[in-house]
Amino acid sequence: MIEFQAVRKEYDNGTVAVHELSLSVQSGTITVLVGPSGCGKTTLMRMVNRMIEPSSGTVLVGGADVRDRDPAQLRRGIGYVIQQAGLFPHRTVLDNIATVPVLSGASRRAARTRAGELLELVGLPQHLGSRYPAQLSGGQQQRVGVARALAADPPVLLMDEPFSAVDPVVREGLQDELLRLQGELDKTVLFVTHDIDEAIKLGEKVAVLRQGGHLVQYAEPDDLLAEPADDFVTSFVGRDRGYRRLSFVDSDGVRPKPVCTVDLGERTQPNPEWRLALDAAGRPRGWLPPGTGVDGPLTEDQLVAGGSLYTEHTSLRGALDAALSAPSGLGVVVDDDGRYVGVITARHVLDVLDQQRGGVP
Ligand SMILES: Nc1ncnc2c1ncn2[C@@H]1O[C@H](COP(=O)(O)OP(=O)(O)OP(=O)(O)O)[C@@H](O)[C@H]1O
Ligand SMILES: [Mg+2]
Questions:
Q1: CA 334, 310, 227: angle at the middle one, nearest 5?
Q2: How far is Cα 233 from Cα 209, in angstroms, rounded to an integer?
Q3: Among residues 9, 37, 224, 244, which one has the fewest Cβ atoms lying within 10 Å of its Cβ?
Q4: ABC transporter domain: which residues (predicted)?
């Protein structure tokens, strides 16, 4: 869908931002460009919609050389999302989203109706449509930015560090949302970040760039972690790559075991075991430490907060994290609806990993 052929960009001051780089981005996938600040990511991305012209080489979109396209028309087929969302401050949220369809000739009314649907698609309530960007949180603005980029239903989406200005929790939500959206929309997404964790989470393929606009490795995330091409990639993917790679190991073989449970609202005698407190829907709420009993009905403020929850059949990384973060050392396993299934220990998770590797010698 997007192809860079020996693309080079040298700015007027002699800076070589991109060095004869070739890369092809498959249609219908999220491809991530990752690398340290100044390595040429933004420059490379902006050559796709002709905001920057290459010094030499060719960029193809959908098989056609972008030089043969009218820039304004080209950009209507390419959504563009940037850091801080870049919304127009004096237009309401709905008008921001409707911008491109109106430019392309849609009636204001049709464009606003569509904008309302897009608000919902990116997980925002309708009443935000009449606000101005400054009246939204950073995460909400970012969602509006995504909605605006999707408004013309472009086959290609360029996203330049769209989530880097929001806090880590909101950021994770936005990442999950993008993955969900992509599952529905099947766009070709070129996504820039300098955060390797974000790259690994979002990218079906990840291109690692280094200073001077050199492409060092282009691979699926699992391969990047398993076999970094050189010392630069090794240091860039970081020291926990063994742990992070667990994200790609499926957790078939993890067998949750039962643990003592108590229901909120119940009276309970002291007990020598860690006990997991469940609410009326069977969802875990926290732990009752060994030796603790309660006089009256059990309430949440009598509990020790639990660790992360592990949703069954997701990756081993989540399973191990649940075990390591639980005060009891027992990671809580839940089903898709968040209901208690059982518990696992870190030892058990590591045994599953050893078995998958073909057993311990
Ligand atoms: N208009 C310009 N004129 C001269 N040099 C530029 C220009 N724009 C960018 N550069 C230089 O080109 C190199 C690549 O810049 P670019 O913005 O593509 O990097 P980046 O990887 O996006 O960095 P960051 O992660 O900080 O956004 C940098 O050294 C930058 O200083
Ligand atoms: Mg940049």
A1: 150
A2: 9
A3: 37
A4: 2-237
Of the chain, the percentage scoring pLDDT greater than 90 comes to 58
Distance 21 CA to ligand 2 centre (A): 17
Do residues 348 and 223 both lie within one domain? no
Please name which ligand lies nearest the alpha carbon of 33: 1
Cα–Cα distance, 169 to 85 (Å, whole number): 18
- Note down the domain range covering 74: 2-248
Q: How far apart are CA 63 and CA 199, in angstroms?
A: 26
pLDDT digits (tens, 9 = 90+) for 79-89: 998 877 788 99
CA distance 329 to 352: 17
**Count of other CB atoms within 10 angstroms of residue 162:** 28
* Residue closest by Cα to atom 17 of ligand 1: 42
Give me ligand 2 centre to Cα 329, in Å: 42
Provide the token pair at 155.
């086959």
In this predicted model, what pLDDT tens digit does every residue of 209-256 receive, in sequence order? 999 999 999 999 999 988 999 999 988 887 677 888 888 887 888 999
Taking the whole predicted model, whether its pTM rises above 0.90 is answered as no
Ligand nearest to the CA of 43: 1
Over the stretch 128-146, which tens digit does the pLDDT of each residue have? 999 999 999 888 898 899 8
Residue 215: name the closest of 2, 1, 358, 4 by CA.
4
What lines the ligand 1 site, CB under 6 Å? 11, 13, 15, 17, 37-43, 194
51 and 115 assigned to the same domain: yes
Ligand 1: atom nearest CA of 46 is 18
Which CATH number covers residue 102? 3.40.50.300
pLDDT at 148 over 60: yes
